[in-house]
Amino acid sequence: MKTAPTPSLLRLIGAGLVVSAGLQALPAQAWSLTIAAATRRVFLHVGNGTADGNNGTVNLVSANLTAAQLLSGAPQAMTSNSTQSASLYGDNYNTCPTPSAQVMIGASYRRSNNNNGPASATLRVTSPASLTTTAGDTIPFSEISWTVSAAGSGVPNVIPAGTFNGGTQTLTTIPANTYIENCHTFRYANSAIRAAGTYNGRVTYTLSSP
After folding, report:
1. Which among 144, 190, 152, 120 is positioned nearest to 27, based on CA atoms?
2. Measuring CA to CA, which residue among 134, 125, 111, 129 is closest to residue 42?
3. Alpha carbon of 13 to those of 20, 47, 63: distances in Å?
4. 188 and 18 in contact (C-beta within 8 Å)?
5. What digits encode the pLDDT tens for the residues 197-209?
6. 141 C-beta neighbours (distance < 10 Å), count
7. Other C-beta atoms lying within 10 Å of the C-beta of residue 52
8. 87 near 43, Cβ under 8 Å?
9. Alpha helices, DSSP H, located in 6-149
10. Are 73 and 190 in contact (CB under 8 A)?
């Protein structure tokens, strides 16, 4: 069992005929762990990360649809090029056992014991209005959603499931001296037939404490 962390970016690309993602009802699980008090700081990683350090990796989530998949109208799972399966909490726990289908997101907020600074930090995600092709075709970013899980944990909704809205969304707040993490699995809704092409978009996760 698991015992009681500089921003990164995630790029979503739909390749082939179209990308598809749909909201799926799965148990929402995550880890929420106490960490030692320290000089005030925030830490965030999305996909491949480095504990308490900078990592410039931009992970890719994608779906390549065949004509049959496109015409079916069924939501399509997206795959990931992330290789981050082990927690960056420090115990190397295998939180995301299948990183090819998951993106681990972990975040922490520390402050010293004399209570300097705000009581919590806020995790947000910002997405553009649409995924686009070089030809100018678009797919609304609201077609992409995610579910969450974390192997071995029963703590619900530490970072909740959701759907991108083409703007900035508040995902959760993190209390002082706490580390949270879970695995996000992305899907495309495939709610309409789109023009063939490669649709690109990038979302940015931020963690801040004023």
Report:
1. 152
2. 111
3. 10, 15, 7
4. yes
5. 999 999 999 999 9
6. 20
7. 13
8. no
9. 67-72
10. yes
Q: For 66-120, how does the pLDDT look when each residue is reduced to its tens digit (9 = 90+)?
A: 999 999 999 999 999 999 999 888 788 888 999 999 999 999 999 987 767 889 9
Amino acid in the structure at residue 148: V
Residue type, 90: G
Two structure tokens written together for 40? 């005030």
- Considering the entire predicted model, what is its pTM? 0.82
Q: Which residue type occupies 146?
A: W
Spatial neighbors of 188 by CB under 8 A, at least 6 apart, are 14, 18, 19, 20, 21, 22, 63, 75, 76, 78, 143, 144
Distance from C-alpha of 51 to C-alpha of 87, rounded to nearest angstrom:
9
